[in-house]
Amino acid sequence: MLSVLTNRTYRHLLAAQIVALTGTGLATVALGLLAFDLAGDSAGLVLGTALTIKMVAYVTVAPLAAAFAERLDRRRMLVALDIVRAIVALCLPFVTEIWQVYVLIFVLQSASAGFTPAFQATIPEVLTDEQDYTKALSLSRLAYDLESLLSPILAAALLLIVSFDSLFLGTSIGFVASALLVVSATLPSPKPKEPRGIYDRTTRGIRIYLKTPRLRGLLALSWSAAALSSMVIVNTVVIVRGDLDLSESAVAIALAGFGGGSMLAAFALPRLLDRIPDRRVMLSGATMATGTMAVAAILAATIPMTLGVLTAIWILVGFGYSSTLTPSGRLLTRSAHPEDRPAVFAAQFTLSHACWLVLYPLAGSLMTWFGSTVAMAGMATAAVLGLIFVIRVWPRTDAKSVVHNHPELPPDHPHLAGPKPHAHPIIIDELHPRIPLEP
């Protein structure tokens, strides 16, 4: 897996991702403390609103950012967005009103909504070999999981010697370091062959996404994964602190189980994907995680839940979650031309976060109104609906090459040059506005 680090450009990009994630992790801890400082017992409401603002920014801003990204130099765009994030982080310690937090969070997350899809779309252009790219996806997954485990520990250590306001300085330093690492790399910046209007550029990614069967399947898998992870992220603290009456450290242990399972999958995926098709791996991971959540609901209804049982369940859910979503970059890469990849990655970013925007509050509401058994069963049911949709829309034989005709083109058109019958992998574009039926 580590062999891809011999690529200097990718090495710098991975380092940029790691330092930015570390800064974001520090900001997460500091934001909770800032909310309590400003709102006291209403801090939960403030954080919940901030999370909603984050998701709204992700859903609305990402397509707009992708529309302008194709006209900008990729490296300059990423650096500028990192600088914006660094400046916002520096402003957060000086807020005195809750509305100011909301405004700054929207600006911060809007910059992230522009940065993240463009950054993700750059990696397959740097690592053009699919095996190398698969290793990079696993390393990226490991970076996310390690951040979720280590950032709270780092924040706790820093809080022994500095106030929570200083954590925002660490966040800003992380974004500046990310910008410097991006500056040090030479990045590709593919441009479209023909100029496009603002409507075309804004909606292009989502139109390509929704017309591609494998990506419609990916959206359904994202729904299932969001349903399961929402149960873990939103309700673990309620189960551990409320139902089990255990300490805060027990919450960390349970969440570490989810992260640990995800990391195990990240280590296993490169070899699995060498031998097994993406569809089977992703569908198997989602099915395993969904089945585990359903079993958890049965156990919660029949026997007393313990921390050990909950952690074991979360390990399996985390393994299935990572197996479901980590290969998604491979699907996005092979479903778009290089100049369209930022738009398609932005579409995945937007649509997957729209799933979380719906399922986060659903998971919390079910837990509040009906308890853990119904919440687990409800989120497992939501995940099953996604699995059914995957099976219906993503063909089992996702052909690499499709025989088709172009009656609208003259016989001497360059696209028709080559062996007959005319066949190639289909990517949605001007010549292929839909997946053609084989003649």
UniProtKB/TrEMBL annotation:
Domain (Major facilitator superfamily (MFS) profile) ranges: 1-398
Transmembrane regions listed in the UniProt entry: 12-36, 42-65, 217-238, 250-269, 369-391
Location within or outside the cell: Cell membrane
Major location (coarse): membrane
KW Lyase (keyword) present: no
Any matching Pfam family: MFS_1
Gene Ontology cellular component annotations, sorted alphabetically: plasma membrane
Membrane topology: Multi-pass membrane protein
InterPro entries: MFS, MFS_dom, MFS_trans_sf
UniProt KW keywords: Cell membrane, Membrane, Transmembrane, Transmembrane helix
Record's signal peptide: none
Molecular-function GO terms, alphabetical: transmembrane transporter activity
Domain of life, source organism: Bacteria
Alphabetized PANTHER family for the sequence: INTEGRAL MEMBRANE EFFLUX PROTEIN-RELATED, MAJOR FACILITATOR SUPERFAMILY ASSOCIATED DOMAIN-CONTAINING PROTEIN
The protein, known as: Putative MFS family arabinose efflux permease
Organism the protein comes from: Ruegeria conchae
